[in-house]
């Protein structure tokens, strides 16, 4: 069942009530959040853009949770490269719901059955089952949608060509799932498939993050898709997400080129000078909203990414379609793809 169903006006009406209720709940159960809202003078919002946002960086300096310590089921950490990391606290209910919603989002393009799966990463990442990096959480979360998993990289981060050939010999004549961070897919799957003649034509690729190194190599998202098609890989879906809103991903539509918001989430693009909401076509700072953060006040977050809304209710799926244009200048690099050999 698709989670890309609601026209924008209907979505905003639904989300405003749910997000306002979450704001009240977190205010009552998270003292630092209450202090922030009191200092800002916030009382109520008449639309989504008027909801109080938190800078995503705040999770690196404050302990923000709305559950007692004895209800903390899992702690997720971000992949920052400066030593400061976000800590995200989940109780069992929040962890279960984020996984359920992630499944519903991914199944929009995969279908309901678990597919044979290539993970373009190394199993060495999954060291501590209680505390994961953003990359580890992404890999582990996506791995549940596959079966007969094969890791494309060995524990040293080198390509395991024999494992890939064995997987394709067994599963290559039927649909299979590929997941990995964008740079790793380019370096360790596309280039290897091209060199060794691997047929990926039945693959469905879901990828995210790590665009910086590709941009450095002058590889645009359009070029990325065009090159992948040369090894048969034409069903390609980028997504945008972050550990601070775990379970919520904004998925690239079948036509490519734009990210879409699931029914339980949305984006706002803000002018970085005035903080006013910008109309479609005007790039600015990206704010992400989601109803999934129930154990911590992460439901309305101002990111450090620049984005632009291309259109509303005019794409293959309803709602806003948008692109992420890159990091805000001088913002910390998050480091997902830069640290893959250390398996953080």
Question: Any descriptors?
Answer:
8 helices, alpha/beta, disordered C terminus, 3-stranded mixed sheet, 344 residues, 15 strands, globular, 30% helix
Quick summary:
With 344 residues, the chain is an alpha/beta fold. 30% of the residues lie in helices and 23% in strands.
Report on this model:
The chain is of the alpha/beta class and 344 residues long. It is built from eight helices and 15 strands. Strands 1, 4, 6, 7, 8, 9, 10, 11, 12, 13, 14 and 15 form a twelve-stranded mixed beta sheet that branches. Strands 3-2-5 form a three-stranded mixed beta sheet. A hairpin with a 6-residue loop joins strand 10 and strand 11. The two termini are 34 Å apart.
Strand content: 15-25%
Q: Summarize the amount of helix as a percent range.
A: 25-40%
Helices, by number, come to 8
For the sheet with most strands, the description reads:
12 strands, mixed
Query: Which class best fits the helix and strand makeup?
Result: alpha/beta
What order do the helices and strands come in, and which of them pair?
Elements: H1 8-29, H2 31-40, E1 54-55, E2 74-77, E3 87-90, H3 92-110, E4 115-119, E5 131-132, H4 134-143, E6 146-151, H5 161-171, E7 176-181, H6 182-196, E8 203-208, H7 211-216, H8 221-229, E9 235-240, E10 250-252, E11 259-260, E12 265-270, E13 284-290, E14 300-312, E15 320-327
Parallel strand pairs: 1-14, 2-5, 4-6, 4-7, 7-8, 8-9
Antiparallel strand pairs: 2-3, 9-10, 10-11, 11-15, 12-13, 13-14, 14-15
